[in-house]
Design goal:
By secondary structure, the protein is mainly α. It has seven helices and no strands. Helix 2 packs across helix 6 and helix 3 runs antiparallel to helix 6. It starts with a helix and ends with a helix.
Length: 138
């Protein structure tokens, strides 16, 4: 039992390291994420310009909305490299590696969604000037 768990975690960390390496090699993923956050924040800022009286009530729902949009876009691009390299046939031949493989993809997507929320929150605070409102209210 312990050997099985060790093997599972070993495969999981191996796949996660490979996913991180693959992500670090493609700079377009991080730039696309930052550009998506910037465009979405600008869209919210100019679209909700009349409702800026209640800034604090708008920021958190907008962060969640952007994380849903970004999460869906990220999930659609999760398996692009596997589809190009035809890895799916290998996963059918070795069924014991499929669970760590999919969990490593899930962990990396979770990290991207958290990073997306953080960047969107920073952009929304910057554009809605929420920090100046909190300082003036204090």
């Amino acid at each position: 039992m312990a050997s099985s768990n060790f093997k599972f975690m070993s495969l999981f960390w191996h796949f996660l390291k490979n996913e991180i390496r693959l992500t670090r090699r493609s700079k377009g993923v991080g730039l696309a994420l930052a550009f998506f956050c910037l465009v979405l924040s600008l869209l919210f800022y100019f679209g909700l310009n009349d409702l800026l009286v209640n800034r604090f009530r708008l920021i958190l729902p907008l962060v969640w909305l952007s994380s849903i949009f970004g999460g869906v876009l990220r999930m659609l691009r999760t398996y692009e490299s596997e589809e190009r390299g035809q890895v799916w046939n290998m996963l059918r031949l070795c069924p014991h590696i499929s669970t760590p493989f999919f969990l490593s993809k899930w962990a990396l997507n979770l990290f991207y969604i958290l990073l997306l929320q953080w960047l969107t929150l920073i952009f929304l605070i910057m554009f809605f000037n929420a920090f100046a409102v909190t300082v003036s209210q204090a």
